[in-house]
Amino acid sequence: MSEEALRSTPVAAPEAAPDATPAQSAVIVQILSTVLFTFLAYMTIGIPLAVLPGYVHLDLGYSSFIAGLSISVQYLSTFITRAQAGRMVDTVGPKKTVMRGMLACVASGVFLVLAAWSSELPWLSLSMILVSRFCLGIGESLAGTGSIIWGIGRIGATHTARMISWNGIATYGALAIGAPLGVALQHVAGFSSIGFIALALPLIGYLIARRRPAVPVVRGERLAFRLVLNRVLPYGIGLALGTVGFGAIATFITLYYASHNWSNAAFSLTLFGGFFIGSRLLFANSINRFGGFKVAIASFAVEAVGLSILWLAGSAEVAMVGAALAGFGFALVFPSLGVEAVGLVPAPNRGAALGAYSVFLDLALGITGPLAGLIVGQFGYEEVFLFAAIGALCAVALTLSLYRRAQITEKTT
Prior knowledge:
The protein is mainly α.
């Protein structure tokens, strides 16, 4: 199914009528005011992202495997809670879900401050970091899923692809800004300053969310989560294969640069995020024009090229080109396959479908850190990006198969 399928199933009754569709300028305002919460949540994620692996590995003295694990705990936590987040959106509404997500992010900041204060006891500091990352994973799950459905509820299902795209812009824009900001904060004010900022930003988000209007909860039959999961399964596998590249870059780019004595590792994350945003801004309507499958195939291919450049890079500048291309390619993976996946379920189950689909992103990120750490231990940092490039190429093959199956189904109905 495609974006057209989404147009036929409105999110809620108030958005169903054609005369209720907001004007384009109003749509943008509504989208921006909603993805603000995603931006604040991912700023909380992005600020420690370029700092934590080095802090755990170099300052606390743990292995590269443990450094990768300290990042991946967040994604494992998100994976565990994503299904519940989707159901929470469908039952209590996206506003309450977002508010709870903001509070979980606040708790993450508190534990990060405690980790900084207990640095003289490495085991305790690491424990606080792991708890912080677990809370952050819950916050990401609730805020990310809730923001998208909240936005769709305010602007109508016709703009689903646009809402998902702008939510991603907020996500990776926050990561692009947050990574170098975190490095600067640590340099100027120490590791504890990162925790205080990570505490303050989601607290601001919570206070803003309290004042925003809610949207009606869509009533109707709720499918069992396993049925929803079965419908989105192949799309989620494609998403997971493409997400490995982002996980490898986010977790190990700083240590990869350090192993070559290169500088400006955080800037590679900025380039990844910047080109991600540029791709979403330039090609956001391509999903409507060409369909989700075609856009996903092209996106995976570009991502694979970028990751291959990272694998073969002989200098910091070449590695930056690879990171930029990987971000450019990865940008439209989530919305292109997501539009196809979410369109497979009735409107009352859209939150559950989005949660089930997103589970595969979380699963990929959760597995990538420790697995890439093992690859680093055996072969070196370069091979991590080769491993990720192979994953993106496998995603091309899978998406081609899904596209052909959809064409056959369309012809027979």
